[in-house]
Amino acid sequence: MTVIEQAGSQNLHEATFQTLRSLLVEGKIAPGSKLNERELAERLNVSRTPIREAIRRLAADGLVELIANRGAIAIQLSLEDVIHTFDVIAELEGYSGELAAQNISDSALSELEALQYEMMASYARRDLSSYYKLNLGIHHLINQAANNPILTKLFSQVNARIEALRFRSNQDGVKWEKAVEEHQEMLDALKARDGARMRKVMISHVTNKRNVVVQLLKSEAIAQVSKS
């Protein structure tokens, strides 16, 4: 489906942005690749204006780098950058979880349960794309429930740098199952209003993601060396 076909229910510029964002997060635009406006406009069947605006927004979100004389490049992090970013996001998510356990409203908790149910259905279908979007929605809702605007801003900025890697971390079946179990633990901790438990679960969840990603990147680097 093209962006124009999707845009019946939403603004064309927003649809273009969300489509490009998904292409980056799901690795359909590889890290380090140049975002060619003309090619993307043809691919999505839109003019270059919404493409240009989407690229600016993606750069602001940290998914794209604007480099002089090279244009827009899909962000590519070094292994050290990845580790440092995950370590920071683990602490931000841990703090978000602790505050959310104290501040979450009954309506937000109900919304979270509904998202968890939908996410489990996506997991049962092995629909990774849908699962990830719902997963991200859960993490954002927990962050918002913390009721700290500065924390929310920091979380969004830092998390954008590693979204594509978090998406890929669920492609291993056993580790994906573990992540699902951890999400149930988050929900249980929130229902119990147990801030200390929630903080521990969140930090452990993100740390496990980091370990999966680091292992994946190291394996890819070894494979690349073997080919050369």
Could you describe the 3D structure shown?
With 228 residues, this protein is mostly helical. The protein contains eleven helices and two strands, in the order ααααββααααααα. Strands 1-2 form a two-stranded antiparallel sheet. Strand 1 (64-67) and strand 2 (71-74) form a beta hairpin. Helix 2 (12-25) crosses helix 4 and helix 5 (79-103) packs antiparallel against helix 11 (195-227).
Topology:
Blueprint: H1 3-6, H2 12-25, H3 37-44, H4 48-61, E1 64-67, E2 71-74, H5 79-103, H6 106-125, H7 128-145, H8 149-160, H9 163-168, H10 173-191, H11 195-227
Antiparallel strand pairs: 1-2
Helix pairs in contact: 2-4, 3-4, 5-7, 5-8, 5-10, 5-11, 6-7, 6-10, 10-11
Can you give keywords for this protein?
single chain; Arc Repressor Mutant, subunit A; Four Helix Bundle (Hemerythrin (Met), subunit A); 11 helices
| Neighbour order of strands in the largest sheet | 1-2
CATH architecture of the largest domain: Up-down Bundle
Shape: globular
- pLDDT averaged residue by residue: 90
Helix content, binned percent: over 70%
Q: How many β-strand runs?
A: 2
Quaternary organisation of the protein chains: single chain
Looking at CATH, the homologous superfamily of the largest domain is GntR ligand-binding domain-like
Summarize this structure briefly:
This protein has helices at residues 3-6, 12-25, 37-44, 48-61, 79-103, 106-125, 128-145, 149-160, 163-168, 173-191, 195-227; strands spanning 64-67, 71-74.
